[in-house]
Amino acid sequence: MRKQEELQKSTKTDQDCAIQRERIKGKFAMTITIRSGECMKIIIFSDVPAMAICDQIETDFCVRPECVITGKVDSILLKKYQALLDTRESLVILISSAGYKDSMESVLGIRSCSSVPIILAANNLSRADEYILRNAGVDDFHEGLEYDTFFCLQIRSAKRWIDRFGNHDEKNNIRFGNWVFQKNMSVVVSPDRRSFRISQKEYRFLELLLKRQGDIITRSEISRYVFKREWDPTDKSIDVLVSRLRCRFRKEKQYQGPAIENVRGVGYTLILN
Length: 273
What we know:
Layout: H1 2-24, H2 29-33, E1 41-46, H3 51-61, E2 66-69, H4 75-80, H5 82-85, E3 90-96, H6 100-111, E4 118-122, H7 127-136, E5 140-143, H8 149-172, E6 173-176, E7 179-182, E8 187-189, E9 195-197, H9 200-211, E10 217-218, H10 219-227, H11 237-250, E11 259-263, E12 267-271
Parallel strand pairs: 1-2, 1-3, 3-4, 4-5
Antiparallel strand pairs: 6-7, 7-8, 8-9, 10-12, 11-12
Domain OmpR/PhoB-type: 171-272
Keywords: DNA-binding
Organism: Marinobacterium iners DSM 11526
């Protein structure tokens, strides 16, 4: 009996290993596209010829990447591909042979207009370079400029991340008018996609205003929700908080932000313009 169980386990292990080896060879198309109802969209910015990489990605993922051969990813180029960068299922692959400085400029340019995942393929980046670039917005690194098994697995991992992010996108993003409140990042995005980060107290206050949009929220309710204490009439913390949040919206002069109206003697209410 034991010998049969051991034989079954051994056979199962061999089958698992065979499946794993088969997957590592590539051909992830069925694994990836069936799980999600929508296909991943890939855009490649490269300063070296990348048609061979595009062909290999298309073979593995059944997605033809948009390939742009450019020495530098500038604002004009990003504006041209803004619609693609705004798509939830998009992935940017940045292939750079120029080194750390040009890679950083390209990453900062992409991050200024999009939160799309970025994989950076480059040569001879030190750990310090990777650390700084990761803080600038790179999600994953690939050593070298060639497409290989590891590169394929990195794209697969990015796809899984995109799927998870997409499932939680509606919970994390609250839209009010043409503005978006990204709760998971404590960021408010204006209609022209300019963003600004808000403090923890501002986050709590804006969250409360949006939850009860159109209602009058008393100072006592604001104090308990934001500051976790009972309201004291001599305390000016709420007035300072309201003033700071109003100033942040007023800085976006091109677009009229939501108005935080004072209801004298009662509290505040949010009015969308």
